[in-house]
Structure formats: C-alpha cells, structure tokens
Amino acid sequence: MIYSKRKNFGVLCRVVLSVLIFAGCVSAPVERDDAREVTEEEKAFLSRYLETLTVKVSFREDSAEDSLYREAVTGFARKILAREGFLAEDGGDAEAAIEIDAVSEGESRRENHYGTAFVRCCLVEPFTGARRELPGITAPRTFSKASPFDAAVNATEAALVRMLPEAVAETRAFLVELYGKGIVYGLVARNMGSGAAGFRKAFAGKVRGLTIEEETPERTRYGFAFFGTPEDAEAAAKDAAAEAGITGFAIQERKGKLLNCNGGN
Asked: Which pTM was predicted?
C-alpha cells in the first residue's frame, strides 16, 4: 500500500529587503531620507535586540499535507526552538517567524513502513511581511513499524533537526539586513489638528526615514525606522507631540510594532 502526497512547489516566497510598502498603500517620504550614519551605539542596540530574538514557527497554511501531519511537524519544530530559547508563545509578539513547508511520502511493505519528505523553511518578519526562502532538503528515507504516516513524520523531523539551527542563524542575518537603518515601526495618528505638520517635522528628527504610508481625513499612517524598543518609540512620539504643542496626546494602543495615537485636539 502506498501513502503518498505530491505538490508542485513553484515559488514559495520572495525576498523583500530594501523596500517596505504596506499592502494597498502608496508610500511618500515626509522629507528626504536622512544620510545619518548608523552610530556605534545604535549598532550595539541592534546586537542586543537580536540576542533576545523570539521566533514563532508555523506550517504553510495552503499546504496540501494532512492536518495531523502539519501539527506533528510544527509541534516537533517548536520543541527544537524552545530548547534553544528562541520560541515565542502562540499569540505572543515575535521578531521573526519560520514557516515550514513540506511534501511527504510514505510507503508500506507488509508490516514495514518507510517515509521521506522534501522540506523547506521560509523566514518571515511578521510586521513588514518581508520573507527569505532557505534552500530545501530531502529527508533521508526512514523506517517505522507503526505506519507510513509515522515514517513520513520521522523523516521530516530528521530534516528539521538539521535545518532549524541554521534557520535561526539565517534569521539573525536576515534581520540585520532588514534593520540596517533601524527596526521598522508604524504609527497611526488621529485628531492631530493644526499640530500635524509640526508633529511630522519633530518626529522625523527623532526617527529614520519617516514615510506617510496612508493618509485620509480621519487619520495618517506613518512608517519609520528606529533603533529602540516599542516603549522607546512611544516616548519619541510623545516628545514630538509636545514639541509640536499638541495637548492631550496619548498612545491609545500598541499592537506589536504598530502604535495607535490620538492627538486629543
């Protein structure tokens, strides 16, 4: 009896490293991108930031593989990452994600079962959606007395033992490139009134590459790079609002790296 699933992979993901545009929005710089050199202090911050890297792992959503297979594979991958101290809890914020994709094959010959799999990983920066695909590998053919399903899962796990440590190292390199001018953030500003122009000018001096991602009568969404934590970014926005004379300014909510604020005017 043959247990087999095959899928034409095509292009799994594309690399986005230098241009970050939110879907459906046209980006426009507030003013020319500054030419400030990245300081040693900023480089040190990024290094510390990546030392405490948290990584989430998932299976590609549109995979043709059985749900039980996907659950078994992701559960095993999470255990590997947790042992290394990299896993973020489900639903928690993470600096990066590793998306697994695989095509498995199992075969039964009387009471013996054999399996193999072709496995790929794609690195994802969750906030921007930037992705980098890693080379895939074919897992060695494995043996199981339980079932062809078990043999296929064992083969996939053997591949992940080899792939995931490299994937985490590649994730750090990926983020170093992506965050070369600062960690990417977003800010949604509402009710800024007459202080909006002053806020933009003041905020542009505190962050890098401030860009208008979307602008409507009700709100303005900015994108920017910044060497600091989300709390530091909040403080920079509050300082910019104070310099612009905006009273009642408050950060209403922060979802990961997206700040939602209200000018109170």
From this structure: 0.77
